[in-house]
Amino acid sequence: GPVIEVRELTKRYGDTVAVDGLSFTVRPGRVTGFLGPNGAGKTTTMRMVLGLDRPAAGRALVDGRPYREHARPLCRAGALLDGRGLHPGRSAYAHLLWLARSNGIARSRVGEVLALTGLSGVARRRAGGFSLGMTQRLGIAAALLGDPPVLLFDEPVNGLDPDGVRWIRTLMKDLAAEGRTVLVSSHMMAETALTADHLVVIARGRLLADAPVPEFIRAN
Ligand code: ADP
Ligand code: ADP
Question: Using a 6 Å cutoff on CB, does residue 85 contact ligand 2?
């Protein structure tokens, strides 16, 4: 599977250095946890990986190229459908069908991702009435639609009940076991160590640690 490479990445917002010369690699076939306190620069880094933000310096590459240079989306941001792309009056089914059509994806995938995310029973309800957990699931369903080899999850367990948290954990592990590249951000070390195989830890936009989880647990 493709590799995500972050090389000497830097991003500033006015006087704030959000990401400061950050370098790390995310490999396929395992879940990589992207840890750091709130404001550490995780979302900014993920946005640059997805080509949504321009770095001041350095590069973010997916499979050796900037994300935007890939003809077909190689990755999708799961759990990032935070109301931005959501049409409250449309059903979950309508959202996914729209995305499938506009991305040339077979409509049979819609039923598949609804089943995968446990949304089959509420597929015809308007998404505006969804709980946070259901909205997260819909975002993940949208992410999975094109069967992407790379998945980025930005704080996916935020606001979820224990069942939802267990579900997302299992899903991320399954996606990695299929050989995909999975990067999940969090500010919760203990929680992330339960899911991830490898941890990249940042603070103030800088790398603090980059190691397999067992190594981490021994060192702390
Ligand atoms: P994290 O995801 O780790 O919580 P962020 O990447 O969201 O961190 O933010 C990193 C830093 O950049 C913070 O200081 C944050 O306030 C700042 N920041 C992020 N986005 C913006 C923006 N659009 N405008 C100004 N400052 C921003
Ligand atoms: P890309 O294909 O580049 O990843 P997006 O999927 O983020 O782009 O969104 C492209 C357009 O589709 C945006 O205008 C966004 O508002 C809209 N959109 C995103 N998600 C949905 C959705 N689930 N249903 C309907 N429209 C959506």
Answer: yes
